[in-house]
Specification:
The protein is mainly α and about 80 residues long. It is built from three helices and no strands.
Length: about 80
């Protein structure tokens, strides 16, 4: 496995999961998967663990934001239809 590529991919996916609504949930899950793969690999590429940690943090924040966004959209639609 290419540790450098997986670490950078996890960071990029984590950042994108914060930015894009709805698709960010899938991107965040993919970012968590990539960062967990990097965390499990131990070898001479220990320097990329920090990048993978950053990707994990961004991915988790993105997932939480997307869940809140989806819940607020569903509740907003439900409340809108209940008052009409």
């Amino acid at each position: 496995m290419n540790v450098k590529g997986a670490a950078i991919a996890s960071l990029v996916l984590g950042i994108l999961s914060i930015i894009f609504p709805f698709a960010g949930l899938i991107l965040g899950i993919m970012g968590v998967i990539f960062s967990r793969k990097v965390m499990k690999v131990s070898g001479e590429n220990e320097g990329y663990r920090g990048v993978a940690k950053g990707g994990m943090i961004c991915s988790v924040i993105g997932i939480c934001l997307q869940i809140l966004f989806v819940l607020s959209a569903v509740l907003g639609v439900a409340l809108f239809w209940s008052f009409t």
